[in-house]
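Annex B. Sample input.
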Amino acid sequence: MEITLFQKCIFEFLGTMILVLMGDGVCAATTLNKSKAQGGGWVVVSFAWGFAVMCGVFIAGPYSGAHLNPAVSVGLGLAGVFPWASVVPYVCAQLAGGFVGAVLVWAYYKHHFDATKDNPDGMLGCFCTMPAIDKRGNNLLSEVIATFVLVFVILALGTDGNMGHAGDTPVGMGSLGAFPVTCLIIALGMSLGGTTGYAMNPARDLPPRIAHAILPIKGKRDSGWAYSWVPVVGPIIGGIIAAVLYLLVY
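Annex B, continued. Sample output.
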């Protein structure tokens, strides 16, 4: 049975929703007061984000390819390995999934948000990224480089040398392809996440930031709108650079 574009977008929505639910969920678990995981630290966050992406890929991978990230969709489209006409529908589905996932995190941890009124920055960090040192040029460069690595390695995973063969036909790893991407996300978090929180994904940052702005969270701060363009523009630039280099090299 042929899968329609609408059905693919449904899976992009579901995969991104689960990604953000579990990814922002670990931020809430390790940050909010009275959580049993409070103080879990950066290693826990990096591993959990990697596994969150893995779960999203398992859900969406067989049906939509599991981009789960506008920067990935744009990069794959520019690299010619994904139909450009599908990019905008995919991005809309990813943004919607990111918003719903963030709302679910708030509902799940509502009483813990209520108990954390003394830490408005931490509560914002449960939804979206903010820089460790607010230097917009360097922050943008961090997001560009991290997302470049993400998209370029994803593209490299699909090259002939990284795939098996059935006769002369290249064969991917199927669902096992989620595991290299999981390791990639974990490595990026540990290596390049310390400056900005490694958004690398507008759908993981902008829709949850909107959710933070409109949800009735007691004691919250502003939603960091002056910075909000960085984790949107940076990943898109990084994805484009990765696509261009991929076309030149491969």
